[in-house]
Design brief:
about 15% strand, about 170 residues
C-alpha cells in the first residue's frame, strides 16, 4: 500500500454521446462560454448501428433514407460550423481483428462520410478510418458478435479533429 495520497484516478476519456439533434443544440448553447482554443465538439458522437443499420457483412445501408435522416443532425451542424474538421472511425463487433473486420469498419466509416458529403459537407473536412480493437477506447471486450455487441461495438464515432483523442486515434488508424 502506497503512503502517497492519490487525488484523482479518473479517466480523461469522455463519454460517447449518441447522435441526435439535441447533442448539437447543447454544443451551440455552450459554445459562447468556451475558450477559443477548445474543440467545438467536446464529446465524441457515436452513430450506432441501430441508427444506420447495414446489410449483413456490408457497408450498404438497409434503409438509405432512414440512415440519411439519422445523419442529418451532423450534416446540419457541420454546415453551420465550417471551421470544424472531423475524424470518423468505424468498428465491428468481435474481439479479434481480421482483415475483413478492419476493412468493413473502414467501409462503414466511409459510408457515413459519403452521406455527410451528399448533404454538402466538403470531403476534405472528413477523414474516415478504422482502428484495431485494442486502439478503440470505447470498445467493450467479451461481448462477441451477438446483438449486445452490435449495439455497443458496431459503430461509427465522430470526433473533432482538433482534439487530442482524435489525433491519437488517427495515429493508430489502420
Amino acid at each position: 500500500v502506497s503512503p502517497i495520497a492519490v487525488e484523482d484516478t479518473g479517466s480523461e476519456l469522455k463519454d460517447l454521446v449518441v447522435l441526435a439533434p439535441e447533442v448539437f443544440e447543447e454544443t451551440e448553447e455552450t459554445q459562447d462560454e468556451e475558450v477559443a482554443d477548445t474543440a467545438v465538439l467536446e464529446s465524441p458522437i457515436v452513430i450506432p448501428e441501430s441508427q444506420v443499420r447495414y446489410q449483413p457483412d456490408s457497408a450498404e445501408f438497409l434503409d438509405p433514407v432512414a440512415a440519411a435522416d439519422a445523419i442529418q443532425p451532423a450534416v446540419d451542424f457541420l454546415l453551420e460550423h465550417p471551421e470544424v474538421n472531423i475524424l470518423l472511425y468505424g468498428t465491428c463487433a468481435g474481439d479479434n481483428d481480421t482483415d475483413f473486420s478492419l476493412e468493413l469498419g473502414r467501409a462503414r466509416a466511409e459510408s457515413i462520410k459519403a452521406e455527410l458529403e451528399k448533404g454538402g459537407v466538403a470531403e476534405d473536412r472528413i477523414t474516415a478510418v478504422t482502428v484495431k480493437v485494442a486502439d478503440d477506447p470505447y470498445y467493450q471486450f467479451g461481448l462477441g458478435t451477438n446483438s449486445e455487441a452490435s449495439s455497443v461495438n458496431r459503430k461509427c464515432v465522430m470526433l473533432d479533429m482538433s482534439t487530442e483523442l482524435a489525433k491519437q486515434i488517427l495515429a493508430n488508424a489502420v
